[in-house]
Specification:
Elements (H helix, E strand, L loop, with lengths): L1 H19 L8 E2 L9 E5 L5 E7 L3 E8 L5 E9 L2 E2 L7 E10 L5 E8 L9 E6 L2 E7 L5 E8 L6 E8 L8 E6 L2 E2 L9 E2 L7 E8 L8 E11 L2 H4 L2
Antiparallel strand pairs: 1-17, 2-5, 3-4, 4-17, 5-6, 5-16, 7-12, 7-17, 8-9, 8-16, 9-10, 10-11, 12-13, 13-14, 13-15
Length: 237
């Protein structure tokens, strides 16, 4: 009888562990557009530009970043969790997931892993839409731009992006990974994980459209399904 009870106890413990495992990963932030722009820590988009919530029959609420001619920037900066700005940290793995669709194949910078203040690296990681391509860059501490990945795109079509960043002020410890439309990507150096310095004094994500090169052009970036987590599974499509 004791042997039977012991076996049952072990089986019960295994069941608890198996059911508890999926809960170990959790979404740090859900930037559902239904929550309005208050899900961001701030918005940087001067009049007549705007960051608004569009409601689509097929998607529900999505963000619309509208940068008219004459402006360089229309972006959201940082994230809020439980009403407070979330503070990203050094030596930590973050996954950022979102869907994007631009109305132009030259929307310039649509994502920044931006440094505050601009001490050594202004923006260690950038994603741009330019010349009909979606491009991912790492910018080194000495200001060198390294093209990690590129993909031809079609305007006004949705693409899911999942960007893994391990924050580190060490060039040998920081890393970047990318999933595009649910598929892990290979970088220009042949690797699926690129090592480089990804942390300055403080870093925050920025989404939208930005660039001096498009100041004299209009651009719209629609964004949906914004999430931040600690694993790819947290932000996967």
């Amino acid at each position: 009888m004791r042997t039977g009870l012991h076996t049952l106890s072990v089986l019960a413990a295994c069941v608890v562990l198996l059911t508890a495992s999926p809960a170990s990963a959790a979404v740090t932030w859900d930037g559902d557009a239904a929550g309005g722009t208050g899900v961001f820590a701030g918005v940087e988009c001067e009049d007549p530009g705007s960051v608004t919530v569009d409601v689509r029959e097929d998607r529900g609420s999505i963000f619309k970043f509208n940068k008219p001619t004459g402006l360089r920037r229309c972006e959201a900066r940082g994230i809020r969790v439980d009403g407070y700005e979330y503070v990203f940290e050094n030596n930590t793995t973050y996954w950022l997931g979102w869907e994007t669709a631009t109305n132009t194949d030259d929307a310039a910078t649509i994502f920044q892993w931006k440094s505050y203040p601009n001490s050594t690296q202004n923006y260690p990681v950038l994603m741009k839409v330019e010349a009909g391509q979606l491009r991912l860059f790492h910018i080194t501490a000495d200001g060198t731009w390294v093209l990690l990945w590129s993909q031809a795109i079609t305007v006004s079509t949705w693409k899911h992006i999942a960007l893994g960043i391990h924050s580190s002020d060490s060039a040998s410890a920081g890393w970047i990974e990318l999933y595009y439309k649910g598929v892990g990507q290979t970088f220009t150096d042949g690797s699926s994980r690129y090592y480089g310095r990804t942390w300055d004094t403080l870093n925050k994500p920025k989404w939208g459209t930005y660039g001096a090169e498009i100041e004299n052009a209009a651009a719209i970036n629609w964004i949906d399904s914004l999430k931040v987590g600690t694993t790819y599974a947290d932000v996967a499509p």
